[in-house]
Amino acid sequence: MGPISAVFGQNDFFCAIDASGKQDVICWGNKDTNTSSSSSVSAINVPPMAALSGGYGFMCGILVNTSYASCWNSMGYTSDLVPQVYLTTSYSYISSGKEHVCAIRGSYYSDIDSGSVDCWDIVVTSTGFGSKQSGLYYSQEISSVNFKKIVSGDGFTCGNLEVGGIKCWGPNASNLRIPNEPDRFLALASSKNSVCGVLESSGEIKCWGSYDSGSGSVSLNPPVGTSFVTLATGDQHFCAIRRDDHGIDCWGKVNSSSIPKDSGFLAIASSDSIMCGIREDDLVLDCWLANASSSSDIDPPLQLCSPGLCTPGSCGPGQFSFNASLLHEPDLTSLCVRKDLSICSPCGSNCSSGFFPSSSCTQNADRVCTACSLCQNSSCWEVCKLNSHQHQDHRLHRLHRLMIIIGSLVIGFLLIIILLCIFLRFLPTKKRQFSSCIGKTMEKETDAPDVVPSAVSVAPCPGLAQVFRLSELKDATNGFKEFNELGRGSYGFVYKAVLADGRQVAVKRANAATIIHTNSREFEMELEILCSVRHSNVVNLLGYCAEMGERLLVYELMPHGTLYDHLHGGFSPLNWPLRLRIAMQAAKGLEFLHTEMNPPIAHRDVKSSNILLDADWGARISDFGLLRHDGDVILDMRDDVYNFGIVLLELLSGRKANDRDCTPSSIVEWAVPLIKQGKAAAIIDRCVSLPRVVVPLLKLADMAEAAVRENPCERPSVGEMAMLLEQLVKEGLIL
């Protein structure tokens, strides 16, 4: 029983209590199930619950307001799964098995933490499921015993006795062979034919029974010498949350490569082959495939969930009361429906690899984990595997690197001034007005893009990435309100922001799906790469924020929007010299990613909406695919060339890459045959006045045709395209 639970069997699904403060229940199903079944699971209308427990094909819970038992299946909420005689009985604990349910009598919110047990059978009917009083799970002996916790499996229920030890009953209980020991348990979990428990004294796990699933016996031996706080079981595996760092350990028949390595969890649940948990950093749902032989897959909803059960009274030793203010929702004061309830979660004492606990667990907060790169004193040297000499070397290395960076910036700055003055000295007699002799060179621009500067604008390096506070970015974006939204993509949302110092920036906020599929280590690696990307034709990173599980990136603001906006979105049309210059600058940005970065970076999503226009109408490449690491970089760079060829066709024709209103809808299928037939002039955009000389545009069409060839080996490199485009820009000056 917990804040998250799973249903076993063919129609498996998960349910969890949300973090809205109302204790509403959200459910989600297997993506491999048929559409109607999957949608019905997500649409189940379940009343608010205090706790959940999944069985085989159904789930039960304890109602928030009354402590009554309530059960439902994948088709929806129903009262038929609780016999009439038990409908108005209050329960403090509930456990669902294969074909039965047992529950401990007593109010869920009572200070009394034990009671007698009622059990009933779940039966299959012509319309689905029904219920009846059970004779298989009733005996005079069991009815006279008080239990604190119970779990149920295939033909048995086991309970943690008030006086200590475990007692099992039911037709298959004798198969478990549980000895008469006075151990007390923090948590219990069961599979069809086995039971495991976490010892209160040591946190170690004991298991009993067998694990013959029909495909061979599976080892029941849990990890030795490791302390845990809770556990969950599937068809052929167990998983548990470690006490020290809240990481996950699994045993049995399990796909170890899929287990999250860099995230801590406060609650977990398992169906036959899928594990889901609630992450401690951000309360986001995370699911992974536990059984390597299964083809199932599940995609949890993007909602925050309760990290534990709401209970009366104060938290005990080794626990902290979860503070709702950590979620930064002004109107949310508690995750529980009543103010006298609290969520008690186990304290962590350690952190995952690469982090150290910078503060210990308190009554109202868990320990805080900080990256080892920020380790500054001897208290964290041992955890981060540093000694005083290594730490001193680390600081000297950082100082040395900082001196190199500062020296390089000073030398580069002086070179820019010298080159700029030489450029001005030998400039033709035609007068140009420059707003500054220091920094980037730029001509006085008109508001419209009709006047094209002949010099490519060079943006100054914004320097080292700044670390922003979450509160600072919330204020800058008006609380991430919709009217500040600039756009959205697979990564998340992009907002316009005005910082306290008056700077206008763009803030990219990761959505829950991105956070789920990236851990802190991957985010740090991405930041290292983003901070090293500095080019006048790439949107440069200014800073970031990684508080409270958020992933926020702060970029230079591109005030003239995207190339897509101007070609297809009704913005001001672009003249031909400017279109050629945009093509050249975008190619130079891609060339920088492909050839000057080590290792090379493939963009993997080149399109007109990812080419932004700065204040000087200069083209900047954005949103290159750091989150898409998999694949062959060489092939991906050739794919970049293909997609850039599509952008060139859009620039030439003004037509979308794929337009359902046109036949054929694909711009490649429409334009390439005309270009090959020598009719490239037919695709030139007629919404812009035709130039006197169309030769540069015809050459651009030939270049686009080469870039979109089906054989990747026949495509030019982006460097070759950048060089050719530079020549076309020079020719285009006479257009």
Quick gist of this model?
The chain is of the alpha+beta class. Residues 32-39 and 428-463 have low confidence and may be disordered.
Structural topology:
Layout: E1 4-6, E2 13-17, E3 25-29, H1 35-42, E4 49-54, E5 58-63, E6 69-73, E7 76-78, E8 91-96, E9 100-105, E10 117-125, E11 128-133, H2 140-143, E12 147-152, E13 157-161, E14 166-169, E15 185-190, E16 194-199, E17 205-209, E18 228-233, E19 237-242, E20 248-252, E21 265-270, E22 274-279, E23 285-289, E24 310-312, E25 319-321, E26 341-346, E27 355-359, E28 368-371, H3 388-425, E29 466-467, H4 470-476, E30 485-488, E31 492-498, E32 504-510, H5 512-516, H6 520-532, E33 541-545, E34 552-556, H7 563-568, H8 576-596, E35 611-613, E36 619-621, H9 633-653, H10 667-676, H11 695-707, H12 718-732
Parallel strand pairs: 29-33
Antiparallel strand pairs: 1-2, 2-3, 4-5, 5-6, 6-7, 8-9, 9-10, 10-11, 12-13, 13-14, 15-16, 16-17, 18-19, 19-20, 21-22, 22-23, 24-26, 25-26, 27-28, 30-31, 31-32, 32-34, 33-34, 35-36
Helix pairs in contact: 8-9, 8-12, 9-11, 11-12
Protein name: non-specific serine/threonine protein kinase
Domain TNFR-Cys: 314-369
Pfam family, one: PK_Tyr_Ser-Thr
C-alpha end-to-end distance: 74 Å
**Helix content estimate:** 10-25%
Question: Biggest sheet: strands side by side, in what order?
Answer: 29-33-34-32-31-30
The third-level CATH topology of the largest domain is Methylamine Dehydrogenase, Chain H
- The shape is elongated
Using the coordinates above, name the CATH class of the largest domain: Mainly Beta
Q: CATH superfamily of the largest domain, please?
A: Regulator of chromosome condensation 1/beta-lactamase-inhibitor protein II
**Beta-strand segment tally:** 36
Number of helices: 12
Estimated share of beta-strand residues:
15-25%
What is the typical, i.e. mean, pLDDT? 80
Structural class: alpha+beta
Unreliable segments of 5+ consecutive residues: 32-39, 428-463
How many structural domains can be distinguished in the coordinates? Answer: 4
Largest sheet: 6 strands, mixed
Q: For this entry, what is the oligomeric state of its chains?
A: single chain
Annotated CATH architecture of the largest domain: 7 Propeller
GO cellular component, one term: membrane
Keywords: ATP-binding, Disulfide bond, Glycoprotein, Kinase, Membrane, Nucleotide-binding, Receptor, Serine/threonine-protein kinase, Signal, Transferase, Transmembrane, Transmembrane helix
Enzyme class: transferase
GO molecular function, one term: protein serine/threonine kinase activity
